[in-house]
UniProtKB/TrEMBL annotation:
Ranges of compositional bias, category Basic and acidic residues: 161-172
Top-level taxon of the source organism: Eukaryota
GO process terms (BP): DNA recombination; DNA repair
Keywords from the named record: DNA damage, DNA recombination, DNA repair, Nucleus
Keyword Zinc: no
Subunit structure, as described in the record: Component of the SMC5-SMC6 complex.
Residue ranges of the region described as Disordered: 157-180
Family, as annotated: Belongs to the NSE4 family.
Record has Ligase as a keyword: no
GO cellular component: nucleus; Smc5-Smc6 complex
Location(s) in or outside the cell: Nucleus
Cross-referenced InterPro entries: Nse4/EID (IPR027786)
Protein name: Non-structural maintenance of chromosomes element 4
């Protein structure tokens, strides 16, 4: 095996290959740690993913031994998982507070704090959004009239109490007229009965073959007359 290597490579080429291999082994672990640090960051911007992808490709070129290849595969798997989580959150249109603040710092400030946050630019953009919203209020129904309107004078109507609405005289007169008509009819009936020699039967006075209601009313009146006669009142 050594003879084959000696025939394939010259001494200078072999020494250069060994030196390159040592340099790659020396650079692999720092590159792997840098990739893991970038993956664990909460930033999900395109620049962040591009930087991680470049470091993963560089790590793949540096991997030579089996252990280094396993670590390279693990870094690639972690990068893919972070990319999938970012795609799912973007599909649900969910914006985390951390990503919102990061976006503000990227747009109007500096993460490192080298320059102050540009509140004026942020205010100008917010005012522009508010102005667009306020202009949509021009579609109100009806005219915007600012003229003074005369106040209508409402006259309060006097409420009548229950004591005011009384007509005792009319009710009394109506009852008197009804009583006088009833008394006349009863007096006429008794005069007819007295003028006849043969007494009338009670059923002839009460019963009405054409009206059952009239018969019941006559019977009820007879009971009332009997009670008034027993109490000594005039019939």
């Amino acid at each position: 095996m050594e003879k084959r290597n000696s025939k394939a490579f010259s001494k200078e080429e072999y020494e250069l290959w060994v030196e390159t291999r040592k340099q790659k082994n020396k650079d692999f672990l720092p590159t792997y740690e840098a990739v893991q640090t970038l993956i664990q960051e909460e930033s999900t911007t395109i620049d962040n993913f591009k930087q991680i992808l470049d470091e993963v490709e560089r790590l793949h070129e540096l991997a030579a031994t089996a252990t280094e290849q396993v670590l390279d595969a693990k870094a690639l798997s972690d990068f893919v998982n972070k990319l999938l989580v970012s795609i799912k959150s973007s599909g649900n249109k969910e914006i985390s507070p951390a990503s919102f603040i990061t976006g503000l710092l990227t747009k109007y400030g500096d993460k490192n704090g080298s320059k102050p946050f540009n509140w004026s630019a942020l205010g100008e953009n917010v005012v522009g959004i508010c102005n667009n919203v306020s202009r949509s209020c021009c579609t109100m129904v009806g005219p915007m009239d600012v003229e003074m309107k005369t106040k209508k004078v409402v006259s309060a109507k006097r409420k009548r109490s229950a004591a005011d609405v009384e007509h005792p005289e009319e009710l009394k007169n109506a009852a008197t007229e009804e009583d006088s008509a009833t008394d006349k009819n009863v007096a006429t009936m008794f005069n007819i009965m007295k003028s006849r020699k043969k007494p009338e039967k009670v059923e002839n006075l009460i019963m009405n073959k054409d009206s059952y209601a009239q018969t019941g009313e006559n019977l009820f009146a007879l009971f009332i007359s009997g009670e008034r006669w027993e109490s000594g009142s005039e019939i």
